[in-house]
Amino acid sequence: MGSQTSKFSKTVVGNETHNSARNVLEKIVLETKGNIKGKANLYKDKLKGNLSKAKFYQPLLVEAGVKKDVPSNLCDLDYIFHTNASDKNSEDRHPCHMRDRNRFSNEGEAECGSDKIRDNGERSAGGACAPYRRRHLCNYNLEYINENNTKTTDDLLGNILVTAKYEGASIVEKHPNRGSSEVCTALARSFADIGDIIRGRDMFLGNNKEKEKIENNLKDIFKNIQQNNKKLKDLTDKHIREYWWALNREDVWKALTCSADGSEDYFIQSEDGTKSFSDRKCGHYENNILTNLDYVPQFLRWFNEWAEEFCRIRKIKLGKVKNACRGEKDEKDCSREGYDCKRTDLKKNEIFMDLECPNCEKACTSYKEWIENKQKEFKKQKKKYEKEIENNQSNNDRIYDKKFYTNLNVKYPSVSNFVETLKEGAYCTNGIIESKIDFNKQYDTFSHSQYCKPCPIFNLKCANGKCNSLDDITCTYVKGFPNRITDKNNDAFVIDILLNDNKIKKLSHDLKDVFNECDLFKRIRKQNWNCKYKCNLDVCEQKNYNNEMDDERFVSIDVLIKRWLKYFLNDYNQIKEKLNRCINNEKKKEFLCIKGCYKNCDCVEKWITKKREEWQNIKDRYIKQYISKDEVFSSKLKSFLKQGLFPKYIENALDPDETLDKMKESSVCNVPNKLNGTSCKNNDVITILLNRLKEKIKTCKSQHEENKNNNSCKTSPPPLPRRRHQGRRRVVRSVRIRRPRQVVKNDRGLLVGEEEEEEADNGGDQEVKKEEKEEEETPEEEAEVERPGPPVTPVPELPQPPATTTPGVKPPCDIVKEHFKDKHDNTGGIEKCYPKYYPRKIDYPGWNCTNETLVSGKGECMPPRRQKLCLINLQHLTEKTSDDLRKAFIKCAAVETCFLWHKYKEDKKNENPSKNLDEVVQKQLKDGTIPEEFKRQMFYTFGDYRDIFFDTDISKKQGPVKDAKNKIDELFPTTDPKNKTKRQEWWNEHKEAIWEGMLCALSYDTNEKTFKKEIHTNLIDAKNNNTYANVKFSGNQSTLEEFAKRPQFLRWFTEWGEDFCKKRKEKVDKLVGECNSCTISDSTGGDGGTKTCQTDSTGCTKCREECKKYKEWLETWKGHYDKQSKKYFNDKESKTFQSTSAEVDVNSSKHAYEYLKKVLPKNCPNGSCSCMDAESKDTPNKTNADDDTHNANMPASLDNEPQELEGKCSCTPPPPPKAQPGGAGRSLGPRSKEDDEDKGEVEEKEETPAAEVQDGP
Fold first, then answer.
1. Phi, then psi, of 534 in degrees rounded to 5
2. How much of the chain is helix, strand and coil, in % rounded to 5?
3. For position 140, what pLDDT does the model report?
4. I want to staple 412 with a disulfide (CB 3.0 to 4.6 A). Which of 417, 720, 787, 906 is the partner?
5. Residues 58/61/65/68 CA torsion (nearest 10 deg)
6. Could you tell me the pTM of the whole model?
7. pLDDT digit string (tens) for 824-881?
8. H helices of 100-207, where?
9. Cβ distance 1055 to 1018 under 8 Å?
10. φ and ψ at residue 190, rounded to 5 degrees
11. Which CA distances in Å does 779 have to 136, 774, 878, 885?
12. Which residues partner with 1175 through β-bridges?
């Protein structure tokens, strides 16, 4: 979520012409939509909603008897009251809840996936892309409407208007050109999307198909409306919804524009140049809406919006690239490789040099990924457009779409004609950086930035992929330059490089013989390079250059080598990941034979041979030309791979626990030759990686050799995930394998499906579509495999403890890494769980003992931590399998741990900013030590998840907890007595995996959005005692399981005591400091036996004020204790704790504070939880001290005045001095002046009233 609202920009953005796609679509729809409103008016009395009659059923408010009238002004609707959402937290009922309110984020991506967009079927048909704005449309409240709470057209209108109001507010607040006509355009697009939702035309399915649920509920609502109105019985569902929208759309537009600032106006430009403008506030006060985009097919609107957003964001990203590579004042000249092009040519011949411009490399890499992804999205939508026009003749499903497409086809007979309109939009004509936008010229529009070129080579000039020849260049030598290249070393260098970048659709003839049967390499291609010296620079030319696939024709050899390294490491990591699917545990005597593995491992072996040749050629060139040695080369290479973006590639290539500096050759190192006495030589990084992969190949081929011992492999492993291009992320489908039947369900072969979205005409669409359908409908992916031997398991990217690496079951860390990879949004949330201080730190809850939606009211107090517990994956558990439940628990526990740690560090940072305590605890974690204070939070959290699973949770079990409970009960129905045993068996089997998921989450860096391998490696190191079997508190001998079994009330009460002691210490320490200046006597001579002090002194006055604040703070905690103490007393009397792990401690503790006195030191032995040690000083004075009541004995820490203050809160003035002996009568002698003065002084003091006796502040 963005941090600031947008600034006003009262202009019409850019130079949008009448030929822009938006204006074209607005014009066509006027000619084609017909008189829908007229037809709808026949049913106006049944379908036109009346807001004043709308009813909302917010469960918590209904239960509490809170009623909020529906306002007469639709702009006064309040999401807190006017909703059916059941969330207990009012902010969580916001229609934008769990949406990114920065709807125009520069990092926001469109969604083009076939699983997220309806009608995105076969790839040959292209597909639509839902804009980021649509992805986060504020309709959370609609997820809660159904036929039971939305019974009439009035009720439906009320809910839709709430959606529209807050959707409009979100658009206005964050629009990059707030105050301009573009705000109205964005509102019109959301208006149209809301209309599509109502009419059942919306193509966006969303994550977990939440939007499909809305559609199903709307069908039920409209069906209910129809059944209750005989006049509607002859209408189809399609017509009822269409007419409802036609009759209510004006109210929706008014609600949508409530937040418009007043300066915006919507406009439509005609061919003659005139513009039709709406009234201010985007026409909020008008009865006739100017826009008709809601009658334009959604795909065309989205395509138009996609182009506008592309132009807007492209300008921003190119600006960042320019700044990184040229500087704000053009003071830099950096290349895409990170080199400083102002250095001399001689310097550039040093291949493995330090990178002077790392930010340029990062910016260019990021832009390259983005622009290539955008080109794929464009091609996908362009293809979709062609199919929409083509299929229009047979498309009779919609009322007016057929006529619209027919008209569109007449005016724009080819796709290129329509694409031409996309460049006429506001953002595509305004402030263009680099080349002008022209979507019919893809090479220019989607090319890499001109700021990201390599350093220039002499005077070589290239345009549209054509360059002048090297032979045309005349060398000019600078005096003093040494000629490093001798004639004998100036040989031409020819190298062929294999690229597996999926930029071709079929293999070239020269590669078919090698890779024709290889699924992984079916789109591999070859670059032919020829390098030679020119003007003291080693220059390489690509002989088979293709400007649609390749970057530059000419590069210096250092650039070529660097790119080769990136290509190699990227391909190596992919192959290594996929190869693991075919490699069984080498220590097992038995093995599983899987069809397809042998063939594909053999293909990888061929790839290794080719890459080894390429690498040897590169090494020979480098060593030969620079007269170096292998050892020098290896050292320089290792240093080079630590720079720029290489570390992220290298980290995945290395073995677990391995660093680049400690990288060693494995057993494949050349064995010393006993005949000639040669020893094993030190190989470079790339050679070592190739050798390791070669070893994996040998293992693979030995395990999966078909017909070996008459054992024929009949089954393939699960298909590999296809790579989906979504910005920088990579979406990977999980493969579920059920135990004990080791089964996998697909027979497509290893490594099938590794193709890009745009691969369309290879005849594989139906197969892929079938596969995707099976994924959606089948809980497990199954197929018979041959025994003996366990199933193949993927090797995790993070090291896993052996305890839960069960064959066929996905390791916890793999689940966590995959879950964390894609689910982030701009709020920092992961899927639908949010950081603890979201949305604001001030909103973080305190202990709650009274909220009837949280607690039962029997005396328990729910911790703040527990109130924010992440349960989303359990709430929305759609699959009813044991493994899916396991994954849901692991995901929830991991996210919860991650956000708890983030909060813990933030709290530590604020605890004492000067000491950088957040860095201290992070350092502890990095070394494998979980801070004791945080470890306790993990124990408390683990225990709560256990209670939810066993249904021993003592909360009110509403909202998320209820949903989670119901999902678990579906798997273990309480009606079956055997399920109690089955639950225990399930927990015993998976409890360690849940804990490991929590440990894995601790290695996740929330700022960098990456996992830190070193942290995880240290955390699971046996010596650090963090594994499930060994982890304990320091000083507490209870294991994690024993602790989690302790009754939940006692755990919460203990957690309360720990929190109270900590916060009380902070308060008391501050109070002692504030009262330092108040001096008291050592005696108790004050009124009522108090200490005495000068109560009117500045120090004592300030002290009394602070004591009063402390007493007010303490009252809340006294209330907490009173409720919990009473529950403890009653539960103890009823023997609730008998036969539990707490029985001994409870039996020896009559009063609640005595129990805390026993257990708190075990939790925090450093003395920070010792505030329950002493008994209150008031207890001896109570007449009922021995009574059997819960509050007969209280802890001293709840006294109004802390003992640490030593009476300063209650001190009173000293008593007046006593009269001297014999001074009662009047002196017979003469009075002196001094006597009179003394008498007056005494009398004056006696007249000063004593301060009231204070029992605390």
1. -145, 125
2. 50, 5, 45
3. 93
4. 417
5. -80
6. 0.57
7. 556 678 887 889 988 788 889 999 999 988 998 899 999 999 999 999 999 988 777 8
8. 132-135, 153-174, 181-199
9. no
10. -70, -35
11. 28, 9, 9, 11
12. 1195
> What confidence score (pLDDT) does residue 681 get?
58
Question: How far is 431 from 433, CA to CA, in rounded Å?
Answer: 6
CA-CA distance, 1033 to 1024, in Å (whole number)? 12
How many residues are given for the chain?
Answer: 1257
Q: What is the mean pLDDT of residues 1202-1212?
A: 91
Predicted local distance difference test score (pLDDT) of residue 1217 = 76
* Residue 1008 pLDDT level (bands cut at 50, 70, 90): confident
Q: Which of 258-267, 748-757, 956-965, 1052-1061 has the lowest mean pLDDT?
A: 748-757
CATH architecture of 1051-1205: Up-down Bundle (1.20)
**Cross-strand partners of 117:** 204
Query: Which of helix, strand or coil describes residue 725?
Result: strand
Residue 767 has pLDDT above 60, yes or no: no
Q: Mean pLDDT lowest for which of 284-298, 307-321, 1161-1175? A: 1161-1175
Query: Hey, is 462 helix, strand or coil?
Result: strand
Q: Return the CATH number of 810-1034, one of 2.40.10.220, 3.30.830.10, 1.20.1310.20, 2.60.40.420.
A: 1.20.1310.20
Tens digits of residue pLDDT in 157-204: 999 999 999 999 999 998 998 888 899 999 999 999 999 999 999 999
Does CATH number 3.40.50.1980 belong to domain 457-703?
Answer: no
* Alpha carbons 886 and 812: distance in angstroms, whole number: 9
| Range list for CATH 1.20.1310.20 in the chain | 21-101+136-296, 810-1034
**Which residue reads 């009231």 in tokens?**
1252
Ranges in the chain annotated CATH 1.20.58.830: 1051-1205
Q: Which residues of 1001-1012 are buried (b: 16+ CB within 10 A; e: fewer)?
A: bbbbebeeeebb
Residue 396 has a CB neighbour count (10 Å cut-off) of 9
b vs e for 541-553, b when ≥16 Cβ sit within 10 Å of the residue's Cβ? bbeebeeeeebbb
Q: What are the b/e assignments for 870-908, b being 16+ CB within 10 Å?
A: bbbbbbbbebeebbbbbbbbbbbbbbbbbbbbbbbbebb
Q: Which two tokens stand for residue 870?
A: 């992440």
In 33-178, which ranges are continuous DSSP H helix? Answer: 36-40, 44-47, 59-64, 132-135, 153-174
| Distance from C-alpha of 895 to C-alpha of 908, rounded to nearest angstrom | 20
C-alpha distance from residue 540 to each of 365, 473, 529 (Å): 22, 14, 6
Residue extent(s) of CATH 1.20.58.1930 domains in the chain: 457-703
For 1109-1153, write each residue's pLDDT tens digit: 999 999 999 999 999 999 999 999 888 998 888 888 898 898 899
Q: Is it true that domain 21-101+136-296 has CATH number 1.20.1310.20?
A: yes
| Mean of pLDDT over the chain | 79
Contact (Cβ atoms closer than 8 angstroms) between residue 153 and residue 46? yes
Tokens of 401: 């779409």
Residues 6+ apart with CB under 8 A from 713: 593, 594, 595, 596, 597, 598, 704, 706, 786
Contact (CB, 8 A) for 41 and 308: no
Task: Note the helical H segments in 298-357.
Answer: 298-326, 345-348
Give one DSSP letter per residue of 530-579, joined into a string: EEEEETTEEEEEETT--TTT-S-SEEEHHHHHHHHHHHHHHHHHHHHHHH
Do residues 1125 and 1141 touch, judged by C-beta distance below 8 A? no
Residue 519 has pLDDT above 50, yes or no: yes
C-alpha torsion 1021→1024→1030→1035, nearest 10: 180
Give the least confident one: 23-32, 71-80, 235-244, 679-688. 679-688
Average pLDDT estimate for 1009-1038: 85
